Amino acid sequence: MAKCLNIKKDIGFFICFWFLGIGSARSQANLSKFHITGYSQGTTYQLTYYAEDSVITQKQTDSLLGCLDRSVSLYKPTSLICRFNHSEEGIMIDKPFRELIEKAVIVNRATSGLVDITVKPLVDAWGFGVEKSVATPDAEDIRNILLHVGQDKIWLEGDFLHKKTPSVQIDLNGIAQGYTVDLLGGFCESRNVFNYLAEIGGEVRVKGTKPNDEPFRIGIEAIDGNDINPGPLRRIITPGSGAVTTSGNYRNYLKVNGGQVAHIIDPKTGYPTHNEIISVTVWAQDGISADGFDNGFIAMGVNRTLQFLADRTDIGAYIIYRKPDGSIADITSPVFKTFIDF
Asked: What is the CATH number of the domain that holds 163?
């Protein structure tokens, strides 16, 4: 078994980012480019960093992400999260699991309950989870499932995560990949690497620059009128240091009764969200915050999201949405606007 590295996110839909200019950096001041790619959490990851030597290896990053998988992956039956979901009253959890729970509680409160990790039974019922449903849930199914959904159904005491009833189950996929890029970034910095780009499943964390002070740039794809196929790049951003994540309904959806059902479930109603937002790209100072809020902003809708972000300097969003006449438009919060190149 791989040893977990000591350092101080199921298959999600592919996020629409292109990383611009990663392969064009030139050496300066004895810095060389190193690029690591691998597979974790049902998707691919990459780490590009600049250093004098290869102080970070794929074996190390695979070990780091393997430890996280053994903690919170729903695809590993022996993981801590699967053990919790099948437990009667809860279990002892480790540090990554606890940090994710603590952040999930903060985001739940900030979004008035629109982001809720106990939504897993609803996600499964609608066919988006690891455990696929054979039929679309009806109103009675939803009412019964909602009895076991809600942030008040779980609580932490030290490292013990309690559940109110055996039927309570959690899903951390909406926040785990953001946390993962934070882990990769933290590992870089523990090795005195301060110029890097870490990405998993489209969720990104960057710090510093490429050689010659060239910034990391990230492209955001345009979406066509059917919300399905990505088009040319709609925007290019230079986020400096921080994290960028995206959530949207245009890739991960199901066809139900001739219509599209989105994968983002409203934990209050039990039904998929349905509003004008097509996608939200979020910048925050860390990945766990950006990833934690992006689904919540989709559930909030355009106006509530912009109100939430109006005076925030620690988090911002770029929203692609459908206008009442069916045309596609975009809008940004104040802090995100400062990152846009075009």
From this structure: 1.10.3980.10
